[in-house]
Write a structure and sequence with these properties.
This protein is an all-beta fold. It is built from no helices and ten strands. It is elongated, with a radius of gyration of 25 Å.
């Protein structure tokens, strides 16, 4: 967890007696204040997920949960682990389970203290299980996620896109996420991800550490 570091200059006074008169104290110029970014790359987010499908293998809509963990091992880089599960309704009756898991590494470049350019790449795993007629499907792909992070006070915005090449999506999808700090280290989270075949909304909590 990174906090704003404040350097306070100590004041020193020199007293000299000249003809019985002491000069006014000399106050040196304060040392420059070094302000670190408030954007954290050490956090855990847990969300409720809702997805609407558009003409994808008779899939209708689904609800579930997702989680994402970021850990910055050194300045400018971070590790990412993510996963999710949803129960999906099928148009002709019944339901199926869809799950995903990802592991990646990211790098960020501060444009200013509160605006970062970020890029993330890694491996994505996907499963479609427990469907009617015993149809199951599992796949894996690389993924890429370029995005921007920006923060103004208690509000943070993330916006970008994710590319993956797996059987169900096989597409670019754009995303936007909003975070609002409600307590020390705790944020409310909300967002949307939309591509050619599906749209997912999320709402949850993020813990910064």
């Amino acid at each position: 967890m990174k906090k704003i570091a404040t350097t306070i200059a100590s004041l020193s006074f020199a007293g000299f007696a000249v003809a019985g008169v002491s000069p006014a104290p000399v106050v040196p110029a304060p040392a420059p204040v070094v302000q670190e970014t408030a954007l954290s790359y050490n956090n855990l987010e847990v969300d409720w997920l809702h997805t609407e499908f558009d003409d994808v293998a008779n899939l209708d809509s689904g609800d579930g949960v997702g989680a994402r963990w970021l850990y910055s091992m050194t300045e400018g880089f971070y590790l990412s682990l993510g996963g999710g599960w949803q129960s999906i309704d099928i148009n002709n009756g019944g339901s199926a389970d869809i799950w995903s898991a990802s592991v990646g590494v990211g790098a960020y470049y501060p444009i200013t203290s509160n605006i970062h350019l970020v890029g993330e790449v890694g491996a994505l795993f996907y499963g479609y299980d427990n469907a009617p007629m015993g149809y199951d499907d599992n796949d894996a792909s690389a993924y890429a996620r370029p995005y921007v992070r920006a923060q103004w006070g208690a509000l943070e915005l993330q916006a970008g896109a994710t590319w993956s090449n797996i059987d169900v999506t096989n597409e670019w999808s754009g995303f936007a996420r909003l975070y609002f700090a409600v307590a020390q280290n705790w944020d409310l989270a909300a967002g949307v991800s939309a591509g050619e075949n599906e749209t997912t909304v999320n709402a949850g909590l993020r813990l910064r550490f």
